[in-house]
């Protein structure tokens, strides 16, 4: 990888080069109102421990917050047009191999069904293509499922699925670099302030880099980065183990929709599963769900036999005989206030911009977040989509803006 020359000062310094940081750099370099210099500072150039690379790589419109629905709709536009949007020197960017299999969210209690209906109303108001299904309709569409304990389901007929996560990150970053953004292989170890502004960052290499804007895109390490500027941030790493398994009698191909492709199913218990080539990918929210060290990537092996497998076997006879193939652990950057992103400036440090606390949604939200922060830096406001409800003020006021559809 080419090592970019370190300048003494950049108009924008982005801390973190995974999906969010790369999207901010990409959007800035594409923004007609911005003509400045940009640097991404990334500690792990292999991105082996990046939440982006370790995610389940999915996108959905099944959110409770209408703005989150619209954010994913824009993300899908970018994914579908990705080769053109990220072309470098006339060579198209990567095809993200979108599989538009949809999500299937299941409700087993009256309260869960009511939440599905309320969320569906918000989604429909945004033009999302999500269909509510009775147990009988689900049994018809997905005959491998046991539905006798279900009351309702919500299925993404279009606009939802899974895609190449690393391809998105790499394509955005390569396009940004082709247009002049620098990628610095280094670690931010400190920040310098002058009154109400960040003036620069100190790097592990010993360099000092000045900045006009500082974007915190540090994922699970975001609170550490904010602390360097004397700011607090309610974001912590939460571990999520992903399991890949083989199935003796695979139900893939049995669906009577989408050419037989099964959706990403979310059981009422919170366990999820989706196809992954000839295999399946699954996981669950652990209980308890403590904060972990940002360097702790040891999978929780017991979750498969204690949580995931029993739920899947009860939901489908096809999942009674399955065999784990591999597993890995990644981190959610968990916003403990309301599980929604924290985006935009700190009121006491207006050139310090947050892009943090995505609580598992950062990959799919990256394009819209990048566009929004580029607009803020270039024009002083969000233009294409008003993202102001996600601002830091709600943290100061302890005023949650909750997202109910968190997996």
UniProtKB/TrEMBL annotation:
- The record places domain FAD dependent oxidoreductase at 11-376
Q: Name one GO cellular component term.
A: cytoplasm
Q: Transmembrane region positions?
A: 12-29
Query: Which Gene3D superfamilies does the record match to this protein?
Result: D-Amino Acid Oxidase, subunit A, domain 2, FAD/NAD(P)-binding domain
Q: Does the keyword Heme apply?
A: no
Which Pfam families does its entry note?
DAO (PF01266)
The Gene Ontology biological process terms listed for this entry are: mitochondrial respiratory chain complex I assembly
Q: What domain of life is recorded for the organism?
A: Bacteria
Which of UniProt's keywords are assigned here? Membrane, Oxidoreductase, Transmembrane, Transmembrane helix
**Single annotated GO MF:** oxidoreductase activity
InterPro entries from the entry? FAD-dep_OxRdtase, FAD/NAD-bd_sf
Name under which the protein is recorded: FAD-binding oxidoreductase
Q: Which organism is it from?
A: Thetidibacter halocola
